[in-house]
């Protein structure tokens, strides 16, 4: 299907170029009507461009107006001046709508390809398990890993705790930090969280737009409190040493933690929801 659309787009573009070449050859072969032909060619291109940026309906309506006006002008010359209808008239009455239609076909095919490419890009982004800027596993990877981690926790009676870390006032901070530095700011905070956990724990970027991370820790609630204090301490160091100077803003975090209980947590998404509820108590 995509190949057919691409072929139609290529044929339409080639046809437009061929028609334009024919117009140039026709104008060069009629030097006596050079000025008139140039004016009509300009009008034909304007109608085609209008169609490109609007719709085929608008282009065809404008072509009908042109045909009517040009026909009226030809009829006036025939009746009042006694001139015969020349080849110019037939040529432009056919060529002008053709240019519009061919360019519309090219536009339609190109837009279909653009829409399809955007859908494929979004689909690829949704299927990716690693964020391209931070190299952190995302929410899709979290759901897969959380299922495995909870199974291990249940089977071997190992406590498992999920920490959800969120930047305070992120919407306001996004207005302060330049757009090209947002990804770098998220990466810096990710490194802060990564440095606060053990190698057998896992860090996930759950929501880039809301600057929210998830940390799966093989520890109980008391052990999670130690990690929380460690993150807050490193955050203070980051604000004092680098972040506030680099981005002109001090960073604050809200951290919520919930220990896994098989009877109360049904699935990975429920795990995240319950951990996010704990953010309300961290002010």
Automatic annotation (TrEMBL):
The chain crosses the membrane at residues 7-28, 34-53, 90-108. Pfam families: GGDEF. InterPro entries: GGDEF_dom (IPR000160), Nucleotide_cyclase (IPR029787), Rev_trsase/Diguanyl_cyclase (IPR043128). The keyword Protease does not apply. It comes from the Bacteria. Residues 128-279 form the GGDEF domain. Keywords: Membrane, Transmembrane, Transmembrane helix. The keyword Membrane applies. This is GGDEF domain-containing protein. It comes from Paenibacillus odorifer.
């Amino acid at each position: 299907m995509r190949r057919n659309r691409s072929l139609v787009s290529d044929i339409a573009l080639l046809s437009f170029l061929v028609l334009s070449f024919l117009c140039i050859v026709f104008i060069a072969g009629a030097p006596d009507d050079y000025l008139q032909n140039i004016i009509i060619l300009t009008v034909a291109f304007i109608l085609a461009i209008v169609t490109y940026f609007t719709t085929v309906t608008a282009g065809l309506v404008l072509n009908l107006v042109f045909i009517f006006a040009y026909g009226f002008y030809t009829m006036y010359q025939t009746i009042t001046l006694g001139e015969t209808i020349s080849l110019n008239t037939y040529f432009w009455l056919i060529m002008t709508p053709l240019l519009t239609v061919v360019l519309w076909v090219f536009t339609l095919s190109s837009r279909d390809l653009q829409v399809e490419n955007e859908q494929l890009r979004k689909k690829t982004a949704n299927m990716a398990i690693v964020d391209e800027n931070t190299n952190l596993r995302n929410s899709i990877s979290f759901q897969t890993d959380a299922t495995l981690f909870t199974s291990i926790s249940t089977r071997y009676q190992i406590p498992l705790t999920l920490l959800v870390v969120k930047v305070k006032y992120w919407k306001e901070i996004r207005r302060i930090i330049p757009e090209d530095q947002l990804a770098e700011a998220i990466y810096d905070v990710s490194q802060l969280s990564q440095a606060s956990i053990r190698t057998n724990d896992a860090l996930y970027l759950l929501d880039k737009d809301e600057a929210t991370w998830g940390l799966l820790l093989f520890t109980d609630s008391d052990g999670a409190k130690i990690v929380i204090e460690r993150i807050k301490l490193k955050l203070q160091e980051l604000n004092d040493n680098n972040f506030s100077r680099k981005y002109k803003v001090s960073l604050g975090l809200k951290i919520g933690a919930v220990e896994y209980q098989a009877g109360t947590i049904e699935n990975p998404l429920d795990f995240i929801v319950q951990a996010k509820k704990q953010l309300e108590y961290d002010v």
